[in-house]
Structure formats: structure tokens, C-alpha cells
User: What shape does this take?
Amino acid sequence: MPLVPKLVLGLYLLFLLAAGWRLGSIGWTIRVKLATALALAVPVPLLFIIPALMRDSAWSDLLIRFGLTLLVCGVLCLAGGFSAARLRARRS
Assistant: This one.
């Protein structure tokens, strides 16, 4: 895998980790936090899933799997940042 896609993927996941950290420290209700987390995590994977669903080609299956993997990893990074912020707040 070339260097630029690895960097973009790493930056995307670090962004979601930082966003989860920030969401964990904001005093919003849990519904607003979940809606914001979904609004942050869903758009990028949909850039791979929607075109794959619209066209039936040899790459469609791979694009759908890549989009779903991005979605799962993004949600895990958000949850990791959220839990790290809660643990830090509990300690201090």
C-alpha cells in the first residue's frame, strides 16, 4: 500500500479519536453526543459504500467491505476517545 493512503487513513482515525475525546468532555446530553458522533463517523465510509451500491463492478464488493471497515474502525476510535475522556475526568 502506498504511503499517502496510509497517512490519510491514520489521520482520519486520529481525528475521530480526538473528536471522541472532545465529545466525552463536553457537557451535552447523551443523545446529542451520539448524533454528533454518527455525523462525524458516517460520511467518509459512505463515500465508498454508495458508489459501490450504485454500480455493479468487480470492485464493488471490495469497496463495500472497505467502507464498512472504515465505519467500524471510526466508531471504535470515537468510543475509545470518549472512554479515555471519561476515565481522565474520573481520575481528577
User: Anything to note?
Assistant: The mean pLDDT is 92.
